[in-house]
Amino acid sequence: MVDAKVLLKCAQSGNADSFGVLYSMYAKELYLYAYKFLGNKEDAEDAVQQASLQVYKSIACVKNADSFKAYYFRALSNTAKSMLAKRTLHTVGEEELENAEADEHTENQAINSSLIEGALAQLKPEDKEIVLLSVLSGFSSGEIAKITGYTSSTVRSKLARALKKLRQELEK
């Protein structure tokens, strides 16, 4: 197992390969979060790339290897929010279904995915962010608080309300 603390120290001293290993540890989670937040593959890839460049340039700011993942997700979250603000909200529709078919998903999975995406689209961006960080990325309320700037109790209450709204949307 690769020691994240050693990798962080090496990356902070300018070793790009060490940063590459750190990136690879979280790449799938970062992309999945960005994809669910932004709604399409191209924007997700762009957001991860922009956030990675930002994190690489500012890696000296990371004081603790245990907080590196949260630092990375905060950068990605800020990048995704910026991108979202620059364009109109992406609606669920034919593009997702075509992508799902191209990825060899069954029709039923594509429909379920569209329903979930549609329900997520009904949430406010900050609530959607909290749900994705919790459900997809597995962050605790304390970690989400560090990423979003909310308190832990605010994160928990926003998450509970957002999940309730998702349930209601999916039951319709």
Keywords for this entry:
172 residues; Rna Polymerase Sigma Factor, Chain: A; mainly alpha; 9 helices
Question: Gist?
Answer:
The chain is mainly alpha-helical and 172 residues long. The protein has 9 helices and no strands.
Describe the structure.
The structure is a single chain. 77% of the residues lie in helices and 0% in strands. Mean pLDDT is 83; it is low at 89-94. The radius of gyration is 17 Å and the shape is globular. The protein has a domain at 1-89: RNA polymerase sigma factor, region 2, helix turn helix motif (Rna Polymerase Sigma Factor, Chain: A), CATH 1.10.1740. It is an all-alpha fold. The chain has 9 helices and no strands. The termini are far apart.
How is this fold's topology laid out?
Layout: H1 4-12, H2 16-38, H3 41-57, H4 68-86, H5 94-102, H6 107-121, H7 125-136, H8 141-148, H9 152-171
Helix pairs in contact: 1-2, 2-3, 2-4, 2-7, 3-4, 4-8, 5-6, 6-9, 7-9, 8-9
Write down the overall mean pLDDT.
Answer: 83
Strand content: under 5%
Q: Give the second-level CATH assignment, the architecture of the domain at 1-89.
A: Orthogonal Bundle
Q: What is the gyration radius calculated from CA atoms?
A: 17 Å
Number of strands: 0
Structural class per helix/strand content?
mainly alpha
Query: What portion of residues is helical?
Result: over 70%
Please report the number of helical segments. 9
Low-confidence stretches: 89-94
CATH superfamily of the domain at 1-89: RNA polymerase sigma factor, region 2, helix turn helix motif
Element-level helix/strand string: HHHHHHHHH
Q: What distance separates the N and C termini?
A: 46 Å
Q: What is the CATH fold-level name of the domain at 1-89?
A: Rna Polymerase Sigma Factor, Chain: A
Shape: globular
Question: Which sheet architecture does the biggest sheet show?
Answer: none
CATH class of the domain at 1-89: Mainly Alpha
